[in-house]
Amino acid sequence: MTATRILSTPGCMAEGAAWLAATDPAFARALDLCGPPPLRRKPDGFAALLAAIVSQQVSTQAARAILGRVEAAGLRDPAAVLSADEETLRACGLSRQKVRYVRALATAGIDYDALRAAPLPEIVATLTAVPGVGRWTAEIYAMFSLGRADVFAPADLALQEGARMLLDLPERPREAALRSLAERWSPWRSVAAGMIWAYYGAMKKREGVA
Fold it and tell me: pTM of the full predicted structure?
């Protein structure tokens, strides 16, 4: 397997899950409980990162409402965003800070086609150079929009808490510690993330029933 293995079918997810289960008993438990994680591919490109910026620090419901207004206003490509005045952008529900972020994204000149074949460090460096796009967003983009099989996003709080539960850790691992832990799940770290998210969800449901 190469570092650019792409998750393109449910079979890819099942293959990765089986490898992880054979490698680590904790993932064998997760697989028994939840099955292989679903393939959660999303489109890539400007609109995907625009949606990521819009969704920061707001509820899912609020993000959907704002994105609906953005789309209704036709602001789904760089040229449209740059031609819109601040009043138009603010009317969609964007804060002044997010107006600055989406304009920065529109002027970044990112070659989204080239990113599809770029090494992960280049993807992260390119995306995090844009104000408002942090490493977590870049890693999630690589995972879901580009389908990379070997990406992890250890700043994700649900992954941290899910890893604590799955690995029976004494406390929730911080970003650096979880990044180090995840190295042993290569070359299927994206699938590992999917399994941890699924396990976390299952455990939270059990807690709710209790």
Answer: 0.91
